[in-house]
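Researcher: Here's a chain I'd like modeled. Treat it as a single chain, no partners, no ligands.
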Amino acid sequence: MADTISTTQDATNGKKVGYNEKGDEVSVRSSSEVNIRKDEVNPGELTFEEDAAGGMGRHLGVFSCTMLIVGRIIGTGIFSTPSSILSSVGSVGASLMLWVLGFVLSFCGLFVWLEYGTMFPRSGGEKVYLEAVYKKPKFLATVIFATNAILLGFTASGCIVFADNILVSAGHAADRWVVRGIALGVIFFVTLLHGLVPRLGIALMNALSVFKIVILLFVVISGWVVLSGKTHIKDPHANFRNAFAGSSHSSNDYATATFKVLNAYAGWSNINYVMNEVKDPVRTLKIAGPLGLGICAVLYLLANVAYFAAATKQEIKKSGVTVAALFFGNVFGAKAEKALSVFVALSALGNVITVTYAASRVNQELAKEGVPLPFGNKFWASNWPTGKSPLPGLIVHLIPSVIIILGPPPAVAYPFILDVEGYPGQIINLFIVLGLFWLRWKKPHIKRPFKVWLPFAVFFCAAAVFLLVAPFLRPANKVGDTPPLPYYLYCLVGIAIMVVGVLYWAAWRIVLPKILGYELVPRKEVLEDGTVVNVFSRKKVE
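Model: Modeled as a single isolated chain. Structure tokens:
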């Protein structure tokens, strides 16, 4: 048993919450009677009840959680990236196989995250799972994850796609600064929406998720009509004959394309980031996770078939980020193409709203854990000003989004951003799944309401290793898909961001305390809105 037991007041129900500063043994009481005993693992510094205190409480049910996944997955990817994927792998057959592979990999990943999420039903996602496994050096895993989550946690791509498609629908040229101005308006609107009127934000998020399902169903049904031969499309089956002709033989091409497919499927773990707000979190996660991903996977595969039925390979490759608009233009004419641009813009908006909602909760969890941020972490951990929603966490998400929108040219930035976002995520995924094996071996008696079948976890692990190695192999075209940038640059940028996390941790925990002669002493504070925060003070070393 550790040295000192302290207590804080649970702002939600007035109970005393016990915690142990060394984390050896913690017992917590919640509605589900979650007990973390000595033979189990308590992620981070906060107990279960402390972590769930404050905010809006548990208000997300199965429907909202399913829509949280659907809204996150269906964004710009299925409308924008099939052309880029086809250009990378060279054939319709290989492109469709990659979408199937992405579906399989995503389900394997979902099952791994289901095991973690039901073991540790608290907000933060990968932050929680890394802390549960990689406890030493203390806070290293947390700070590395924080660096990745904050620096790469932007939603610039969705804002840019919204701006592009709104301009197309209005018949205006996509001037660079007009696009940037609209994109900035979107990200500021979403930040204020979630920060000031959170329940309206959730309602709009759910409505746009349902809308996206309807639009994709319309694309799928239209594709079936095209394949039946009852439209003016001359040969809708042309792309499916010799479907693998022209396939690339470069591992780099497939790895880069797979990153884009996985980015299009990204979001199956979205519930894991907001578990403190989920009603009956274990049951809800087990239902909404597979249901949300399953809906998206079926719609994605059928939508790709529709695209390939309505246009030639050359048309799709040249379509850039408007492949869905090309589909509607070919099938229904120019007026329908403009209408589809509005639909794609609304889908991108829904994705931005959903991503921002989850990302702000992750940022709040990082601040609650004690990650050093400018002006102290108490403000960034709070639910200021409403007491219900973390506007400071939304601001942390807003800043890098604004920088990316204003910085590089969108034509080069969009594909490069997709690649950069994917690479560090795969590094984290690899450590997560390796951690699952470690927990199975070292902590076999932890209560696991859901257990992933180990071959699924092994397959997910092997895929993560491949996706980390293959991008360094020279692609067939020698330049990759983001010229004039080197094909391996996004990998190096991703690794550099994680190295920055290591250096930041070393400066915070080792270098500055040694140079300035102090040690970091943790304590817990309860904020006015009920949020419990881990705060560090400096104690002078004699």
